[in-house]
């Protein structure tokens, strides 16, 4: 099996139904860690033109459109996108959806977006350099790129919790950090999702590529679990001893390689 973009997309097609069922408003990471942070960083989005690259089933597109933004959602998995399109028919909002690879978006015009968001997408795509170059091309000068991804320092080609004989987490195993490229990343056994193709890059690869595409990184966030998880979601608290996500808030200050 070749772990190329097509294989990744096929696996997202296969997982689409489960993803749509499991990762809605009540998902704890969305509800407590990521959504409030996204809304706080983006501020008032009314009238803003936003690209949600790798928009999945359109979850974030709908949230931002309801706040008055005009959204373009791009997604490569037809099955994931079908949930977005179905919802758009049922409850139309200011969103246009495209089945496309966000590393190549020739049908979108340069310098027309205020904001680009990738909400846990970059680790799922093969050509991150192409994607960053496209985001830089599409953003207006001074526009924002909000990069949210699995943390590349803690989710490496060999990773996972080492547990004692009772199943308690002892520590996190992280290895082969410099083995760049795709590997199969399992989901929890109860999720019913098949492993997805995850493209590992180092933190330096990601930061240096953003800089060469004309971005300035103005904030780095490693979301921490809220105190409430200690009592209400103890199991999650234990799993959140190290950060799952890396968030980079970037401004476009130049065109690629200027
Ligand atoms: C973890 S899901 C996140 C989906 C969505 N952003 C969300 O928050 O619900 C990753 C998504 O990225 C999409 N994806 C992967 N590679 C892509 C590419 N090259 N272009 C567009 N979408 C891609 C997958 O099909 C999948 O829907």
List the helices and strands and how they pair.
Blueprint: H1 5-22, H2 28-42, E1 49-53, H3 59-66, E2 70-75, H4 78-90, E3 95-99, E4 113-119, H5 128-138, E5 139-150, E6 158-163, E7 169-175, E8 181-185, E9 196-200, H6 203-212, E10 215-221, H7 228-232, H8 234-239, E11 245-252
Parallel strand pairs: 1-2, 1-4, 2-3, 4-5
Antiparallel strand pairs: 5-11, 6-7, 8-9, 10-11
Bound molecules: S-adenosylmethionine.
S-adenosylmethionine (SAM) binds next to helix 1, helix 3 and strand 2.
Protein model, in words:
The protein is 33% helix and 28% strand. It contains 8 helices and 11 strands. The protein has a single domain (5-251), classed as 3-Layer(aba) Sandwich (Rossmann fold). It is globular. It has helices at 5-22, 28-42, 59-66, 78-90, 128-138, 203-212, 228-232, 234-239, and strands at residues 49-53, 70-75, 95-99, 113-119, 139-150, 158-163, 169-175, 181-185, 196-200, 215-221, 245-252. With 258 residues, it is α/β, with parallel strands linked by helices. The structure holds S-adenosylmethionine. S-adenosylmethionine is lined by residues 5, 8-9, 12, 23, 54-56, 59-60, 74-77, 80, 101-103, 119-121, 124-125. S-adenosylmethionine binds at residues 5, 8-9, 12, 23, 54-56, 59-60, 74-77, 80, 101-103, 119-121, 124-125.
